[in-house]
Sequence to fold (621 residues):
Amino acid sequence: MPTGRLAKWQIILSEFDIVFTSQKAVKGQAIADHLAENPKDNDYQPLHTYFPDEEVLFVGTVEDMSEQCPEWRLFFDGAANSFGVGIGAVLVSPEGKHYPGAAKLQFACTNNMAEYEACIFGLKMALEMEVKELIAFSDSDLLVHQTLKQWVTKDSKILPYHCNLLKLARQFQSLEFRHLPRARNVFADALATLSSMIQYPDELEIEPIQIQLQDKPAHCWVVDKTSGKSPWYNDIKEFIKIGSYPPEASANDKGLLRRMASKFFLNGEVLYKRTLDLNLLRCIDEDEAQYMMKEVHSGVCGPHMKGHLLAKKIMRTGYFWLTMERDCIDFVRRCIKCQVHGDIIRAPPTEFHSMTAPWPCSMWGMDVIGTIDPPASNGHRFILVAIEYFTKWVEVESFKHVTKKVVANFLRDHIICRFGVPETLITNNAKNLNNDMVDGLCEQFKIRHRNSAIYRPQMNGALPYALMAYRTSIRTSIGATPYSLMYGMEAVLPANVEIPSLRILMETKLEKADWIKQRYEQLSLIDEKLLNAICHGQCYQKRMARAYNKKVHLRTFEEGDKVLKRILPVQDEAKGKFARNWQWPFIVQKLDYMSPIEQLPVPLESPHSNPGQTDEFSFGL
Fold:
């Protein structure tokens, strides 16, 4: 029961007979508008075209489709708002060259009519450029499905556009329409929105808009040398000395100069800044400020402190200039020794890119664990392990001796015959894993055999139990257990046998023929479970990318930039406590965004390198 002020207002408002009604969802109004424009008859059955996580299932960007679509591509969109109606289209050549176009419609039309106008506008652009094979992308479900004749066109306003569109489509040798999420059609959407909101007379012609990329801010906070010989405090000094103002000063400038002059003190020809604790700091010019920052920061007793501490130490030394704090921060950022000894950047430099495996069980890693002491009751002292890289499925078998014949039989019986032919097999350099029998088997089934670095984990004796727990646990990435995806049913746990569950009680009453029939039915439905696992994995990758990208601090480089290379911890000589974390600066000579790592020989003399020495720089993008 409410008490206090809440109860008081409840009693006051109760006499007005106020009824609370929750607001309806906005999507309901959108559905109502759609049904009003497209009335249905008794025999009309609308199609359900919504797919869950449509944006997730659409892998790749507009730029990524250049490799998949060697033909000409057309992206179009229409925009209708309170300012007007605009359409935009972008025609992309097979070489990746873009030809944008936009138009403002001087007549009223709906959103669907604007989509058709944009499509016809883009098709006419393609015909003028003599394009014969074209793939058109649109974010309008209505236009795409009506053009593909999956939906019936019944609106009297849309019907003329539909007929005109089909007439233009006959002039192409090949014309294909594909649906594209709105997030992937931003270029055409921006052109349509811009053209719809611009208000201009009919006789005015607007030139094409060029978008420039600016990687540096327009303002500059560093202390630069002035064109004359006067320091920054010359106006304050002249006002205190003779009471004169600069010739171009306005009334506001004069008032500001008087207020600033009250905080300074002139002793002969030297100007001092009066602090709040009545200390006097000598004002210095640009050259003296640069010398003071260099001496205090990296001089004889310079501790290479941070920018804020550097400004405070200079003030304690007895000097001052107007932009001291900002200049000290920029000076410390340019110090090469502070950079090479700086902290390691933990933030990821690029966004998260998830990968999928279209080839199930395509890559396996195989290794030998042993020797195990004491041996098992059957005398087995070695364990041969094979792990699938994508699903993390594990296959193990124990042996007395792991010979080349044992490895070849294990690969044939437990990998190829059970899971199909893999694409790649990765092992170490051991002789029992690299021999003529294994190489012959890989050559027979066209399997690529690769070697990796040697790594032998210690055996704790609980491998079978760990494998059982892993296979019967639901994995977050696939939303199911690996056992159910491989065999079509969940495994029977020891607890189910100890205390019989309903499943155990029902299966014990089945005849052998009925049990085999149900198993065949379960195996026939396993494809649906695999597709659900793939969909769940894509959604999981989308969530991981969204969480990962929150921590990303993008770092981009251009040719000619000076960069530092991180010293990796894996090296022959261990680094000391005071060793630098970054190597001396290198100059970027080439950027290759198609390759993740580019080896660049960049000659640059450093304070501790020999003249003419050339370093190899591993530049990662």
About this structure: Residues 46-68, 594-621 have pLDDT under 50 and may be disordered. The two ends are 62 Å apart (CA to CA). The chain is about 35% helix and 15% strand. The CA atoms of residues 49 and 141 lie 8 Å apart.
